Queue: 2 jobs
Job 1
Amino acid sequence: MKSLIALVDKLIGTAPDDRKAELEQLRAQLEAELESLGGKKPESNDVQSAIAELMRVARSLGEENKRLLAELARIKEREENTAKALEERAKQERQKQIDAAVEKLVAEGRLPAQNKELIEKWRALFEKDFDAASEASKNLTPLKASSDAPSKPEGDRSQSRKSLRDQVAELFSQQTN
């Protein structure tokens, strides 16, 4: 009987808080029965019923443990999914921030819109260290606006070369005369 009480004590130590009261009650019943026997050998029915009750409690605790472990696994999975979603959202926000910074540099004329390679280099700088790239971009001077000079197509430079030749020839002829 004392070994049954020791077994109940072990169960009490590992039981969830809401089940401990039930086990402590069972322990008190076992102690009361032990005292009532007063040194007499317990009847086998009493021992059998006590063992059966302990087995029922042990099974119940095992089922409760499995249920709690399953719930813990669901909570952990939900937290991991939430963390992944937050990380993805942060990554998207950072990309929007980088895109906005590069677009602002192009709109301000600090980066030429047609130079895709340079734009990608700045995008990579912003991705690597946003704060440092922001500071560095403040030092970029705006490119000269095309409104200062007459607009000429890029491919047609023969006109400017011809007039330049004419000007050099005219200056040369003036000096020799």
Job 2
Amino acid sequence: MKARIISLLAFCNVTCSLLATSSMTSEEGPMKQKINFVGTLTSREQKRERKIDNISIDRMTRSINVLLVPTNKTYVKYNEAPNINRLKFPQDQMSGRQISLEEISKMEIPHPGVKWVYKKEEGYREVEYIEIIVSSKGAIKTKNRYLIERNRKIYYNDLDIPGFEEIHTPITAVKALTIDRYESGYKEKEEKTTQTSQAPIPEPQGSLIPGTLRDVVEIEEAQIKTNNF
């Protein structure tokens, strides 16, 4: 009896794993995002702008955790390692923020070789960060300096490559990422090849207009309900 229960639990675990995997992938690879961000990516090696879509940071488009670049008094720079800045304040005192792609017009990585390192205490792993400069949308386009985890990757599809193959580039290899617009999520392959180019997002004065992204999602859900009747 005990052996049957163990076998049943093992079967359930395998089944759940397969279901979880199938929910994230399709015959053409990873599922496309509900909201499609379109823009350009400039890498350091190729030094050319790629036209890309399906943009995300580690498959996140909203509530991406970053830190404000600290003041001189809150980190230590070592002479023997000039490219390492060690943060020295407790984690609960870090000035955390969250950024979302719909609020960004451009993200630049000015110093890819400079590491910002934080270690809570002995026994904890070190966390490495890299500086990014984020330009907001709007007429003014204010710039803010943040720290983001160094192991982050930019995921996207290259519009010059046929098909829907997902590509990722380490954030340390990126010179600049621009977000030109966003639109309702991906359609079928046949529809996308004939889809006309979308107009750029109207630039709000100041910060992002509240509810803009939510409206896109609600419109798409309403269209799905209409098609089902």
